[in-house]
Amino acid sequence: MAAAAVGLPLYYGANKLISQAAERELNGMQRKFDKAVEAEIAKAESLAALVAMEPDVRQAMAAGDRDALSKAFVGGFDTMRSVYGFEQLQFHTPDAHAFFRVHSPTKFGDDLSSFRRTVIEANRTHKPVVGLERGQAGVGVRAIYPISSEGKPVGSMEFGLGFGKPFLDRLTDGSSDEGELYIFPMDASQDIDATKLRTAATSDGAPLLDASCETRRFHSPA
Question: What is the pLDDT of residues 32-91, one digit of tens each?
Fold first, then answer.
């Protein structure tokens, strides 16, 4: 009885300390993650503003000159992709059609209005729209900046940063932390095998979420 009277408080106290330490670690990683996302968004927005305000870009968009955009950006995009993590650089018409994709020059003219709400919003308000967005290529950091020429809106341009393993590698670099990224469907009304939703990880181990995980528990309308 004496041992129990002494040992049980110590046991529960130790468990509480462990739980508090784990919570502090998770909160610290959450803050680190949030700051990393904010930094990626700021980087994309600043570059989008720089390109959108370039006189040659404004003139090319006003004239509908894809060749001028190709000469200006295609040659250096591989470096931007490999060194800085940019996956997309593209230009849109005012009615949200793809005008020129630097990362895929031969693909243009398709209508984006049915799923690219940020592109529609940037062209409607003539104000930049930045943040995380889900698209055909998955979830990524998107910065859409309106372009005008002689005071007239002529379209918009977009920088897209990847939100996958390179991002996780930078986030955990220099620490013992590991990370996984799961992209859940917008409609979480039914259970889905969560192991198939892992899009990136810093280790080769099995997914932390298992097939029986209820995806609706992790779903957020935001």
Answer: 888 888 888 898 899 899 999 999 999 999 999 999 999 999 988 888 887 777 888 999
Dihedral angle computed from the Cα positions of residues 36, 40, 46 and 50, in that order, rounded to the nearest 10 degrees? 150
The token pair that represents 176 in the structure block: 């013992």
Superfamily of domain 38-163 in the CATH hierarchy? PAS domain (3.30.450.20)
Whole-structure pTM value: 0.72
Locate the domains of the chain by residue range. 38-163, 172-222
**Cβ distance 163 to 132 under 8 Å?**
yes
| pLDDT tens, residue by residue, 145-173 | 999 998 899 999 999 887 777 788 877 77
Give the containing element (helix H, strand E) for 157: strand 152-162
Q: For helices 66-84 and 55-63, what crossing angle results, to 10°?
A: 130
The vertex-121 CA angle with 40 and 139, nearest 5°, equals: 40
